[in-house]
């Protein structure tokens, strides 16, 4: 599942436009607690400082998206939760309007990612739970893709190895609850996938294929 990019939901700068009820400072800037309704139908209710959203607040978009959390100088910054129109939700850290730091993303298909973020993307250490299969990936992420060391936990076994651009690569091992271990290697292969019609060009794709080298009994932890 892909993450909704919060940049698609630009907030109104809210500086002396639309309707406003609340505190102001000596320069007539919005300051303190207030509520604003913007010309496009968005609303904000929360704290202001020198005319900009600053502190805790709730911003409701006209398309049903909503952000509840911290602001700094008019930008989502700190800890907050964002509800997206498709039904997905993110709760965690923000820096300069982007998902950054530790956070949890709840996807519309039931998948859950819990871990590090950088500039809206899964980046760093994190755990992704696949709702359909119940499997979990625990490991490193780079720009939204599995990359580096990681493991996938299934109902009765697990795989430990390395990943590159979301694919398993190189040596690894499967450990089964029955008490055996299978070692081997994933090798990348190029595939040509035909289009939906005869006129469509072939689509080049990369996949990884497992080759077993040894099976042995092990003492499971």
Outline the structure in words.
It is a single chain. By secondary structure, this protein is mostly beta strands. It has two domains: 146 residues, Histone H3 K4-specific methyltransferase SET7/9 N-terminal domain (Single Sheet); 56 residues, no CATH class. Helices cover 0% and strands 64% of the residues. It has a 16-stranded antiparallel beta sheet, with no helix packed on it. The protein is elongated. The two termini are 32 Å apart. 24% of the residues are buried. It is found in: Cytoplasm, Cytoskeleton, Flagellum axoneme. Keywords: Cell projection, Cilium, Cytoplasm, Cytoskeleton, Flagellum, Meiosis, Repeat. InterPro entries: MORN. Its main location: cytoplasm. One of its GO terms (cellular component) is nucleus.
């Amino acid at each position: 599942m892909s993450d909704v990019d919060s940049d698609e939901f630009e907030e109104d700068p809210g500086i002396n436009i639309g309707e406003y009820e609340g505190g102001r400072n000596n320069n007539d800037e919005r300051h303190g607690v207030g509520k604003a309704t913007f010309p496009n139908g968005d609303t904000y209710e929360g704290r202001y400082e020198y005319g900009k959203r600053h502190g805790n607040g709730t911003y409701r978009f006209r398309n049903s998206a909503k952000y509840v959390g911290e602001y700094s100088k008019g930008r989502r910054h700190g800890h907050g939760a964002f509800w997206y129109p498709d039904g997905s939700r993110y709760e965690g850290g923000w820096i300069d309007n982007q998902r950054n730091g530790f956070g949890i993303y709840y996807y519309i298909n039931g998948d859950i990612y819990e871990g590090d973020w950088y500039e809206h993307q899964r980046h760093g250490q994190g755990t992704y739970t696949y709702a359909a299969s119940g499997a979990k990936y625990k490991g490193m992420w780079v720009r939204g893709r599995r990359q580096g060391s990681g493991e996938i936990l299934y109902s009765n076994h697990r795989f430990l190895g390395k990943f590159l651009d979301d694919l398993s690569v190189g040596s690894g091992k499967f450990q089964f609850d029955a008490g055996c271990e299978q070692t081997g290697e994933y090798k990348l292969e190029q595939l040509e996938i035909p289009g939906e019609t005869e006129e469509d060009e072939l689509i080049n794709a990369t996949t990884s294929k497992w080759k077993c080298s040894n099976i042995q009994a092990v003492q499971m932890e």
